[in-house]
């Protein structure tokens, strides 16, 4: 529960970010995603020491969200991770930060029997949505065969099942119906699951973008870069920043984009937060997952884009609750 403009609002009382039926079914090639392959006898243990999730404990046929942090606990990348074969892991992430992330991870392989490569020349990523997609629904974060590739069951968005499909480059689309890439991106933002992109590298501790709420952080595993900072943020006091969904109506003379600052009328002299992930629906409405100061979310007034007198940002419903003890 949050408080906006001094009025207490349960998340399910906020408007849901809509998507028309004709834009709710099909598959879209994800040109803004890439994939890293980690393979070798030490691939699991190497990733275990680098990422926020429990990779060595990942069950066969399961996927997980994971973050890759700096020593200061700030996210340098976020991944969907799964193992398509023994001693092989695929890490799907934003394409615009893949080269730098691959280079940085490779610096720490040292003597580990683990080879890291950019698999984008071999594997294509598709986003598939809709109840008539013909893919196995299954539970969230399960991995099942899909033609010559695999389908990772993602969390639903706006009540629609979604999959991340990886398959050989050049294969036919995993489903016959095309999906507008803008509609897929809209569903991605509406799901409340962050994807770190180049514009937001090194800006957020995982909890600022709700990563631990959606299964992207394991607090019982061993050390990884930034682990002490992430654990301290979790257990020492309450969190002061979280991610909310905020929208601009169709026709707004502004554009939401990752890395943009937002402001609040109650504290106009300094930024109130940062856009983490943004999308435009085919109908023209804009939606963003925005990291904000929770104290301002509870204050009288509204969030504004780019300046205290900028375009008004309207709250939208997250698909999961925020912890009640957040400060």
- Give the biggest sheet: 6 strands, antiparallel
Tell me how many strands there are. 18
User: Which fold name fills CATH's third level, the topology of the largest domain?
Assistant: Gyrase A, domain 2
Shape: globular
Low-confidence segments, given as residue ranges, are 1-13
Summarize the helix and strand pattern as letters.
Answer: EEEEHEEEHEEEEEHHEEEEHEE
Number of domains: 2
The order of strands across the largest sheet is 17-14-15-16-13-18
Please, what is the CATH homologous superfamily of the largest domain?
Probable tRNA modification gtpase trme, domain 1
Q: Given the helix and strand composition, which structural class is it?
A: mainly beta
Rounded mean pLDDT is 92
Total helical segments: 5
**Mind telling me the CATH class of the largest domain?**
Alpha Beta
Examine the secondary-structure arrangement and name the CATH architecture of the largest domain.
2-Layer Sandwich
Radius of gyration: 19 Å
Give the fraction of residues assigned to helices: 10-25%
Q: Span between N and C termini? A: 11 Å
Share of β-strand residues:
25-35%
